[in-house]
Amino acid sequence: MKKQQYTRRELLKGGGAMAGALAMPSFFVRDAWAAEFRNNPTKSGKVVFGFNVPQTGAYADEGADELRAYKLAIKHINGEGDGGMINTMKPLSLKGNGVNGQKVSFVTGDTQTKADAARASAKRMIEKDGVIMFSGGSSSGVAIAVQSLAQEMGVVFMCGLTHSNDTTGKDKRRYGFRHFFNTHMSGAALGPVLEQMGNDRRAYHLTADYTWGWSQEGSIKDVSEGLGWDTVSAVRTPLGAGDFSQYITPVLDSGADVLILNHYGKDMVNSLTQAVQFGLRDKQVNGRPFEIVVPLYSRLMAQGAGKNIKGIYGTTNWNWSLKDEGSQAFVKSFGQEYGFPPSQAAHTCYVQAVLYANACQEVGTFYPPEVIKQLEGFKFDGMGNGPTEYRADDHQCFKDVLVVRGNENPTSQFDLLEVVEVVPRKQVEYKASIFGGELGPYEV
Amino acid sequence: MDAFILQLLNGLDKGGAYALIALGLTLVFGTLGVVNFAHGALFMLGAFCAVTLQKILTLSQKVKDESITFFDAYKEQPYLEIWFGETGTTIIEWSVPLSLLLAVPVMLTIGLAMERGLIQFFYKRTHAQQILVTFGLAIVVQEIIKSFYGANPIPMPAPPLLSGTAPIGEFLGIGDVVAYPWWRLIYLLFSFLIIGAVFLFLKYTTYGMVVRAGMQDRATVELLGINVERRFTIVFGIAAVVAGLAGVMYTPIVPPDYHMGMDFLVLSFVVVVVGGMGSLPGAVLAGFMLGILQSFASTNEVKNIFPGIDQIIIYLVAMIVLLTRPRGLLGKKGMMES
After folding, report:
1. Could you tell me if the ipTM is greater than 0.90?
2. A35-181+321-398 with A184-316: one CATH topology?
3. What is the DSSP string of B185-196?
4. Alpha helix stretches (DSSP H) within chain B
5. Where are the domains of chain A?
6. A331 touches chain B (CB under 8 A)
7. Residue among B254, B263, B306 with most chain A CBs within 10 A, to mutate
8. Which CATH superfamily is domain A35-181+321-398 in?
9. pLDDT by residue for chain B (338 residues), tens digit each?
10. Which pTM does this prediction carry?
11. Which of A3, A193, A216, B215 has the fewest CB neighbours in a 10 Å radius?
12. A242–B65 CB contact, under 8 Å
């Protein structure tokens, strides 16, 4: 038997051919990404983000602020302006030249803070405008509705302002990600504040009758009843009731000594104004001052309640007065661009756009399953809330939560909320399993 | 008993607001035969008369907060306070009642301009066309207001003297639980005054008598050489003033925003229909009745038996009334039925 002899040249050639053969599947898979997902920018030659925010209706001002933040984010992603929080974000893959070498553009839509209108707008963005990702909104009802559309259509949705546990709980979706905190975290953060009020308090809830209100009521009840409080009553109020007098007067003779207003935006402004009007702020029950708590504050809308917010406790996702490097960079960038500070809605939207762009850059593709995997479990810092993690199990961001109080002595027209405590992330964390839900598949 | 009195007061208060808006609406319908879907916008414009006056009175000297460098943040002190001290502060605090003086000429002008500039061209059109054009006008008006004042509610506090609660329980000798905001009581009183004034005007002045005669039989009144159209134009202006004044006084109760007129529009139409189209006493009666019913339907006791009843009670009552009395509570046969 003749022994086969190989020259060094033949071995190198053979090795090269073998390596090529082994690399072949991934080569084809990469091409498959390019060919087989909706609105592939490599194919269409354009990277378009869709910003679906309330441009009409009660949350139009908040929507306008979200849009300002998105425009700023696009500038920074494309390497224009001062860079904002891209300068402080760690780890960062973006290079200041767009995403994966392509400049990013955007289209906008109007959610009207209505689930059906928001879905129609998002669908139009996906089908007509070819967006690779869409983001925004000021309502949990809207977020849950468009998140399920995102899953159906295979386009990533980066939530705007949505606070219901359901968004990343029973209604969570693989294609939806939430940076904003939730009602469970608000409850956990407010726990020590409620405890300071006493362990034998009697709470009366007025609750907006939709997913967010129910979620907020449940979270505060869990905490307050855990402290030994009684829940005297929990009354559901129609969204946009305007005059809440018929719901407030029963509080007067209910024996309650704390009123929890599970209302947001215009409802919060109206119910708080009217609660103060009915003398609840000055009321004494069993020798103790009657307390009002607003679990979720919006600085932008709290302006409408004027002096009535003074001394009232609540929570917020972020506030422009924070002094960390990331917040300062964002406030500087936003303030110089628009002449006033950003709202918490603006902050969360800016972060969401940058996080998505960064994930695409990191994996070198826009293929949604790969981008989703990159975002799942992603740990980052320098974005205004301290070390933050996008939990893989439910796509909920975990970070520090701010407990705020209506400022008694504001130094300016923007100085409405005073940060009384930055509650560490570990105090507001919980197991993803407690809220159930299924994320769904990567491939759709 | 305490809860009953409080809900009754709530109902009367709501009813006062409904009746005031419905009064103008039914007045316009009864005289001009126009279904004015822009009437809610007139209520909102009245509220923004108060907002505008408050903005004027609180024009401020701005002291920059030097600790903030990324944008301009100011601590503001109104010039009125700088120039006149406590007197200036008091003037600002009373800006809502003072706004009534501004609202009368402004709303009268707006009402007359609206009628002469647009509504008069739709007298002979169908009600559907009237609804479309006036609804369109309402949207235009509210978007203009939004572009100037934003979408957020604007705080409009009542004067401090009228901001607390009235110890009604102590007055009645039933304890101190029943306390009701002074401003809401004033609003109720105000609505009675305005409603009374409109009725007196229509019943006891020659002008009012001609208007009522015109509502009954326009052709005959015109045969007497009276320019009914001009009178009705003035009536439109009066309706605008009534809606505007209601809007001004409502601002401390619910912080105004550009959409507040739409919030009241549908309810007001239900009130008018339940009361009887074109019937002034009907509008007032239905306004108070529906306000009180809505208030009691919102109590926990009622909601425990009929969940969600607070959100449908008005429409439920409207259905029952229209089934049993198709012309509404006080609608007259032949009135606007030609």
Report:
1. no
2. yes
3. HHHHHHHHHHHH
4. 2-32, 39-57, 79-84, 86-93, 95-117, 127-149, 168-172, 182-204, 206-216, 218-223, 228-250, 260-275, 280-297, 300-305, 309-324
5. 35-181+321-398, 184-316
6. yes
7. B254
8. Response regulator (3.40.50.2300)
9. 778 888 999 999 999 999 999 999 888 888 888 889 999 999 999 999 999 999 999 999 988 888 888 888 888 899 999 999 999 999 999 999 999 999 999 999 999 999 999 998 988 888 899 999 999 999 999 999 999 998 889 999 999 999 889 988 888 887 777 889 999 999 999 999 999 999 999 899 998 898 888 888 888 988 988 888 888 899 999 999 999 999 999 999 999 999 999 888 888 889 999 999 888 899 999 999 999 999 999 888 888 898 888 889 999 999 999 999 988 898 877 655 55
10. 0.87
11. A3
12. no
CA distance A72 to chain B (A): 15
Residue pair B280/B26 in contact (Cβ under 8 Å)? The answer is: yes
Whether A412 and B73 lie within 8 Å, measured CB to CB: yes
A184-316 CATH choice from 2.60.120.10, 3.40.50.2300, 3.30.70.360, 2.40.30.170: 3.40.50.2300
Yes or no, beta carbons of A233 and B300 under 8 Å apart: yes
Among A243, A334, A339, select the one facing B14 at the smallest CB separation. A243
- A90, A106 in Cβ contact below 8 A? no
Query: CB of A61 within 8 Å of any CB in chain B?
Result: yes
